[in-house]
Design goal:
This protein has about 300 residues and is of the alpha/beta class. The chain has 2 domains: about 260 residues, 4-Layer Sandwich (Metallo-beta-lactamase, Chain A); about 35 residues, no CATH class. It contains 10 helices and 18 strands. A hairpin with a 7-residue loop joins strand 8 and strand 9. Helix 9 packs parallel to helix 10.
Length: about 300
């Protein structure tokens, strides 16, 4: 099965701590690398974790609070100074281009690197990127500024050739693509082999949902129902519900309740307030409601089931 996993680069809110970095994740879909949010220090962590930055061609920024994009100017400048060739695409609110363009103009830029901005709205449910492996859709979130989540939907791959049958009947390599696409095959002696005999079905497509900086929005559950993996912010424990309401964040219990409603396979909580020196209380609170919960930590690699 082709890879579909995430690497946690940062998982704290507002400001870096001795234990955590601001928000950033690398999403690997079939060895295509996508960066979701880019808080301060992201490029340092990418280097530390051995992520080849030149392979990151698409960056998705959820909103324009500094802990989600202050690492972007430095990362882009490093790519330019490293003589990275080609295009880097940034999906974000249009104001980000206004902020970054003058800043990037002061730095030496490689002639081979072209930064392409793709503005999107806060309305959500918009497919902002699509290729033959994955589509990325926005979700509208409820925060103090316009904010979106991102849903990565893996596309169904072609079925797999049955190697035992192929070897037995002498199926040539040149015919395998057509068989995968739904055709049967006729041998030189005229024997016909139906498509269903030659292949096994591919796995069910997987889904990863990234929901950060928001009050709980139960209506979003229908749009990610059954996702294999959900990352949902859990900035506070329930005893800080007043702060969660004031600053438009979620508690660990609220994140778990949303995961349960959406019937996801696994919940990953993060975006911790710096008031917590230990996230164990947040994890315990979430697990009492949704047992299949883990707490994000830098360097953690999580497979999308």
């Amino acid at each position: 099965m082709l890879p579909f996993r995430i690497l946690i680069i940062g998982c704290c809110s507002a400001k870096p701590t001795l234990r955590h970095n601001p928000s950033a994740q690398v999403v690997n879909v079939h060895d295509r690398l996508f960066l979701v949010d880019c808080g301060e220090g992201t490029q340092r962590e990418l280097i530390r974790r051995g992520v080849p930055m030149g392979r990151i061609k698409r960056i998705f920024i959820s909103h324009l609070h500094g802990d989600h994009f202050y690492g972007l100017p430095g990362l882009l400048n490093t790519l330019a100074l490293s003589d990275i060739q080609g295009e880097v695409h940034i999906h974000a609110f249009p104001e980000l281009q206004d902020m970054l363009t003058p800043m990037l103009g002061y730095h030496k830029r490689s002639d081979g690197l072209n930064i392409v901005f793709h503005p999107h709205s806060a309305a959500g449910y918009e497919t902002v990127f699509e290729d033959n492996a994955v589509s990325v859709t926005t979700l509208p979130l409820l925060h103090g500024v316009p904010c979106v989540g991102y849903v990565f939907h893996e596309k169904r791959s072609l079925p797999h050739i049955r190697p035992d049958v192929a070897a037995r009947i002498g199926l040539p390599t040149s015919a395998m693509r057509a068989v995968k696409e739904g055709r049967g095959w006729t041998s030189p002696d005229g024997t016909q082999y139906p498509h269903e005999m030659l292949v096994t079905p591919s796995h069910e497509p997987r889904t990863y949902a990234y929901i950060t900086d928001t009050r709980p929005l139960p209506e979003l559950a229908a749009h990610i129902r059954g996702a294999g993996l959900l990352y949902h912010e859990a900035t506070y424990a329930s005893d800080c519900i007043e702060k969660a309401l004031k600053y438009c964040h979620s508690t660990a219990a609220e994140a778990a309740e949303f995961a349960r409603e959406a019937q996801v396979g696994k919940l990953l909580i993060g975006h911790y307030s710096d008031r917590y020196a230990d996230e164990t209380p947040l994890l315990q609170e979430a697990r009492t409601i949704f047992p299949h919960t883990d707490a994000a930590q830098e360097g953690m690699v999580v497979e999308v089931p």
